[in-house]
Amino acid sequence: MKRGKISNNVIRRLPRYLHFLNDLSYHGVVRVSSGEMASQMGLNASQIRQDFSCFGEFGQQGYGYNVEMLRQEIASILGADQKRSAILVGAGKLGQTLMGNFDFESCGFVLKAAFDIRTDLVGASVSQVPIYHIDFLQDFIRDHQPALAVLTVPRRIAVETANAVADAGVRGIWNFTNISLNVAKSDVIVEDIHFSDSLLSLSYYLKESERDAGEPKGTPT
Amino acid sequence: MKRGKISNNVIRRLPRYLHFLNDLSYHGVVRVSSGEMASQMGLNASQIRQDFSCFGEFGQQGYGYNVEMLRQEIASILGADQKRSAILVGAGKLGQTLMGNFDFESCGFVLKAAFDIRTDLVGASVSQVPIYHIDFLQDFIRDHQPALAVLTVPRRIAVETANAVADAGVRGIWNFTNISLNVAKSDVIVEDIHFSDSLLSLSYYLKESERDAGEPKGTPT
DNA sequence: TAGATTGTTAATCGATTAACAATC
DNA sequence: TAGATTGTTAATCGATTAACAATC
Fold first, then answer.
1. In whole angstroms, what is the distance from residue A11 CA to residue B153 CA?
2. What integer is the mean pLDDT of A204-218?
3. Are B65 and B33 in contact, with CB atoms under 8 Å apart?
4. How far apart are CA B28 and CA B40, in angstroms?
5. Rounded to an integer, what distance in angstroms lies between the CA atom of residue B46 and that of residue B35?
6. Residue B190, Cβ neighbours under 10 Å: how many?
7. What per-residue confidence (pLDDT) applies to A178?
8. Which positions of chain D lie under 7 Å from any protein Cβ?
9. pTM
10. Which chain B positions have a beta carbon within 8 Å of A200's beta carbon?
11. Closest CA to B109 of A210, A196, A30, A144
12. Contacts of B205 (CB under 8 A, 6+ apart)
């Protein structure tokens, strides 16, 4: 496997490749070429080959790629084939939704426990994941060394909670709080799910398409 | 206001500017320079000025930008100051979470109704938003012309539901189904929230940081 | 005025796409 | 073998950053 700095753009395309290959695999497709992938995914074939070549040589001239083999390679690059421990902090509505519906295992994680301050939640379980009181958070992290913390607490306590899990040794934070976290420990990886950023972008494109529709000719300046 | 094709990268930064300016405004800050914004947001000052200049001239030499005025300009560009109708399809856990917790209004939308097939949900309301039976979806769209449909249905019926709302006249789809939608009507704007793509990227960076930590010297090839 | 900061043009940097020899 | 398709190098394209005249 090669090394060197891989650009963020490449990393963000890998999950899409993985999903696509999972689908092919599910439908029993055995081989695929970069050209076929490109046309079905709306990408450029050169780009796909470039992306793969950051990590090794997975194809064969004149044939293309073996779907199953390529799928496993990309899963491995992303760590989707691992089983790392994860915890969830903030077992409110959103937290429980993720506990119940999100497939952590397909991303290489196993959700071990959730934490909340509400005593009426403590002691319950959602999809076999127990909810503990937040007072046990630090001890649990020290004992179980989870790689990931899912942050679904209210905005108000987002920063302190992020710092708490980072101090206790968590290496990655999946942040749903819609706050830009500047975690004190600089080697912690933070990935944000910003619902509102996404919807605002959509809103822009909606406005733009209305504008285009309203001016069919291409109005001069 | 200028025109011309604005790059996607610029559009994706606008919501971040808006949040930052909202914060400044909330804290009573009256003026800000591109340099201050850059250092606090971890961007480049030239980039910020370039981004703004796509849409007009909002600053003043020697002074910088008036926070309130800039905030309103960007909100207007994104449509965050509007009040467009939206509906939600699929009032399960995730759907209800969004109905209850997400601030649609701050993104320029008003959630008017939700739809589900489960009769035990029909008739209920979440945060004043009523849940109707999915049989009334088409009629409701024709009558109320919502600009946006939030798609929180199960994967299985994602494609058909997306096509249904598009056919009935919805212009934008906020897609939470983790399926890549190819909506038949090509002028429909689809914005995906792909939880697993996000987590897989995080997983990659976690692996990478472990690798770096394990090889402190910079191993030669 | 002197200092600061914009908007914009030019320079640099990086990412995407095209081209093609290698070879299955 | 002939056709197809890779991996990679080179060319193009676009985005970011630097520089600076204009001017508040």
1. 28
2. 78
3. yes
4. 17
5. 8
6. 17
7. 87
8. 2-9, 14-19, 22-24
9. 0.94
10. 14-15, 18, 78-80, 107-108
11. A196
12. A11, A172, A189, A191
Residues of chain B with pLDDT under 70: 1-3, 184-185, 215-221
Q: Is A128 exposed, middle or buried (0-12, 13-18, 19+ CB in 10 A)?
A: exposed
Out of A77, A189, A196, the one facing B202 most closely (by C-beta) is A189
Inter-chain touch A93–B77, beta carbons under 8 Å: no
Please give the pLDDT value at position A213: 76
Tokens, residue A34: 């970069």
Interatomic distance A63 CA / D1 C1' (Å):
16
Residue nearest to nucleotide C18 (CA to C1'): A46
The encoded tokens of residue B167 equal: 């056919």
Q: Which amino acid is at B80?
A: A
Question: How far apart are the C-alpha atoms of A78 and A42, rounded to whole Å?
Answer: 22
Separation CA B144–CA B142 (nearest Å): 6
Q: Are A144 and A85 in contact (CB under 8 A)?
A: yes
Task: Choose the closest CB to A203 out of B79, B201, B203.
Answer: B79
Interatomic distance A96 CA / C21 C1' (Å): 56
Query: What is the Cα–Cα distance from A178 to A192, expressed in whole angstroms?
Result: 7
Q: What is the pLDDT of residues A17-56, one digit of tens each?
A: 999 999 999 999 999 999 999 999 999 999 999 999 999 9
Element (H, E) at B189: strand B189-192
Q: B55 is written with which tokens?
A: 């849409």
User: How confident is the model at residue B215, as a pLDDT?
Assistant: 61
Query: Rounded to whole angstroms, how far apart are CA atoms A138 and A52?
Result: 40
